[in-house]
Amino acid sequence: MGLTDPVIGQPIAKAVVTLSLLSEDGKLAFWGDCRPAASAASARGNWRRCAKKSASPPPVVPRGRYARNGAEAGRGGEQVRNGRKPPQRREYQGLGGNGMEKWALLVIDMLRDFVAEEGSLYCGPGASALVGPVAAEIEAARAAGAPVVYVCDRHLPDDPEFNMFPPHCVAGSPGAEVVPALAPRPGDRVIPKRRFSGFFGTDLDLTLRELGVDRLRLVGVCTNICVLYTAADARMRGYEVEVPRDKVASFDPGAHEWALQQMEKVLGVRVR
User: What is the pLDDT of residue 2?
Assistant: First the structure.
């Protein structure tokens, strides 16, 4: 014969029940495990006896994906899931599924017109100095099997953007090409864009979804224009975003720092 809950009158399983009671002010009064009794009368006595056992609840393990390092993760700040630490992950994992995020590297506007000194909209020495560090970043991503996606300005000859900026990166012109040291290889994706954000009017989101990507690392120029607005649109679409501060640049150092602060404080981007 099954047991019956003394309150709601419904059958209950023969199992230990974890009971938590709150005081009138909403604070935890006690926490403990209670075993249901065979009858309603003895059950009520059992709950009363259990209530006298004052104990502290165990540390809460965050639900969902692995807990972040720090106080959220419990003792020691270790990442925990189902009581076990996940396997260690390289900076670029190159894996999809299995409970682990998949990274992609977005190389933004590392084009002749922005990076080369003779470019029509040269972003200054800071942009030229990025070539080496971004090349190393690309190689690291490829070595780990992470997708490398080039997000590139590619304008019409009469693009309305030229009402604000000098003509640049016109489709088919040398200025619209990726600088040779960073040239895409077979297997890399190239996403042309006509506006600041790499997501606006492009198939970047579709491409990333098809690749199983949910975390992005952004490098390139300009920090306060195309990097910022691509980061913002990525966050609006639910991607985790990371921006290494030494691998983005702008023609305006003040705007560069302001954009990094906006990304970190307002958008929740991880700025390293």
Answer: 53
What pTM was computed for the model?
0.66
Query: Are 31 and 73 contained in the same domain?
Result: no
Domain count, the chain: 3
Q: What is the mean pLDDT of residues 247-263?
A: 98
Residue 137 and residue 40 share a domain: no
- What distance separates the 2 farthest-apart alpha carbons in the chain? 89
113 flagged as catalytic:
no
Q: Which one of 123, 152, 169, 193 is the catalytic residue?
A: 193
Name the pLDDT band for 141 (thresholds 50, 70, 90).
very high
State yes or no: is 193 an active-site residue. Answer: yes
Q: Quick check: 243 and 263 in contact, CB under 8 A?
A: yes
Give the domain range for residue 125. Answer: 103-271
**Residue in 152, 159, 226, 247 annotated catalytic:** 226
Catalytic residue chosen out of the listed positions 109, 153, 159, 233: 109
Whether 100 contacts 79, CB under 8 Å: no
